[in-house]
């Protein structure tokens, strides 16, 4: 009888004096079916370069290495990174870097790759999912596709649209850079140790061009964040006086009228195209 994967992972870690580290939010994927779906969603080819974030014990790393031309795995845990460095030391296609992904110069790491060609596969710690994605998504010159494990609640927010309770600033910012789609939901039983929440595998595909044309995306994002910072207020009341924008009520009301929007509209009802149009009128 085959030993359950979670037992093998526990034994593998224990043999090296390691254990899941709560500080790094470590929950190691053990479900073979979910691994298959992640690899399928990545659509890997022998020409691909892949960034894996948080390889852990290497269950996905080994799968990626079977199909990709080059793999860079970034692992913050020194013990796990050392274990993987030993395992893959004889394969020049695979680099395991012991580092914090948010402090890693990825432009330097991938300085030799074709523009916008790197695929990202990651089982992200829940507490840092959003900062990592918001750091990587704007790097359009590097990354083409993301397949990311995250808390279901966060995945729901990233793919939500106007009128949905999960719709917010995160939805709009993510959707400016990519087309999000939940590939599958993942129960706690698919991990070792088991988390307390349901997870989701989210696919983020780059469109050929951004869905809206805007000269200053960061100003649009500032407008969006201000609008959702006070969800119960009208857009005018939420945005007026926001220090990062410097927009007065009369100017905002005129911009809304110019865009064909009501003066009492709320931010959560507006689309990305609406925010792009408003940004153009307020610049």
Task: Offer a few descriptive terms.
single chain; 283 residues; alpha/beta; Rossmann fold; Helicase, Ruva Protein, domain 3; 2 domains; seven-stranded mixed beta sheet; two-stranded antiparallel ribbon; 9 strands
Q: What percent of residues adopt helix (DSSP H or I)?
A: 25-40%
The averaged pLDDT comes out at 93
Poorly predicted segments: none
Q: What does the overall shape look like?
A: elongated
CATH topology of the largest domain: Rossmann fold
User: What is the name of the CATH class of the largest domain?
Assistant: Alpha Beta
* Main sheet overview: 7 strands, mixed
Number of strands: 9
**Architecture (CATH level 2) name of the largest domain:** 3-Layer(aba) Sandwich
Distance between the termini: 67 Å
**Strand content of the residues, in percent?**
15-25%
Q: Can you tell me the CATH superfamily of the largest domain?
A: Vaccinia Virus protein VP39
Strand order of the largest sheet: 4-3-2-5-6-9-7
- Element string (H = helix, E = strand): HEHEHEHEHEHEHHEEEHHHH
The helix count comes to 12
The structural domain count equals 2
Structural class: alpha/beta
Q: What is the alpha-carbon Rg in Å? A: 21 Å
């Amino acid at each position: 009888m085959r030993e359950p994967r979670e037992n093998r992972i526990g034994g593998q870690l224990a043999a090296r004096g390691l254990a899941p580290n709560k500080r790094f939010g470590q929950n190691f994927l053990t479900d073979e079916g979910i691994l298959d779906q992640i690899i399928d969603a990545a659509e890997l080819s022998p020409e691909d370069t892949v960034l894996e974030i948080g390889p852990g014990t290497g269950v996905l790393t080994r799968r990626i290495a079977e199909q990709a031309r080059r793999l860079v795995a970034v692992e913050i845990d020194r013990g796990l990174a050392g274990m993987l460095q030993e395992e893959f030391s004889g394969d020049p296609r695979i680099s395991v870097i012991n580092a914090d992904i948010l402090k890693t110069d990825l432009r330097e790491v991938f300085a030799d790759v074709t523009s916008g060609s790197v695929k990202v596969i990651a089982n992200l710690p829940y507490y840092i999912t959003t900062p990592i994605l918001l750091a990587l998504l704007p790097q359009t010159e590097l990354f083409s596709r993301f397949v990311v494990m995250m808390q279901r609640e966060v995945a729901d927010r990233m793919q939500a649209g106007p009128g949905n309770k999960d719709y917010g600033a995160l939805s709009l910012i993510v959707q400016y850079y990519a087309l999000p789609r939940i590939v599958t939901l993942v129960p706690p039983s698919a991990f070792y140790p088991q988390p307390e929440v349901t997870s989701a595998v989210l696919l983020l595909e780059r469109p050929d061009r951004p869905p809206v044309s805007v000269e200053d995306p960061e100003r649009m994002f500032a407008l969006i964040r201000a609008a959702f910072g006070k969800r119960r207020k009208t857009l005018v009341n939420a945005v007026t006086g926001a220090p990062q924008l410097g927009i007065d009520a009369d100017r905002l009301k005129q911009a809304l009228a110019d865009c064909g929007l009501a003066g009492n509209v709320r931010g959560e009802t507006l689309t990305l195209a609406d925010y792009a149009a408003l940004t153009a009128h307020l610049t």
